[in-house]
# Entry
Amino acid sequence: MHLISFFYRTLLTILLTLLLLIGVKQNENFKKIVYEKVYQEHFPFLEVSKWYQNLFGTTFPFQKYLEVKPVFQEKLSYKEKEDYLDGVKLSVEETYPVPVIQAGLVVFVGEKEGYGNVVIVEQLDGVDCWYGNLSSSSVKLYDYVEAGSLLGITEKYLYLVYRKEGQKVSYEEYLV
# Structure
């Protein structure tokens, strides 16, 4: 039963795609209408997706067979810690992949004096966490990052600073 349903969905999708492509190729006016609706106006992709789901079920027929697992899901680990400027300096491995400690929004990516390359994550609890001394970063400004996901790479040391509303917050309550 599922195989027949999948076959009909696939056949209908192929047929609709072919009709759209033939219409665009053969008729200049049709091409202009499609271009205006898709590229120049707001196209309601979500509404089309809902319509398709109501008519045929899931938009991706293999979704129930897929299990999404993060590739990098780690916790922060370090050898030693010591106070440093407004935060803490953690001794880590030679080349250390830095995990996000708490989920949040990336609000800064760049240089900070004394900390080198820094990524600041505004955590869901309203505290800004500065990750300093990064040799590379895998995030961009305004990315949402999950706890445990890869933030970047550091060499030997990682600097952490915690601030809330511009005031220093003790790092002890955040480090295990």
Notes: The chain is about 30% helix and 35% strand. The first strand starts at residue 80 and ends at 84.
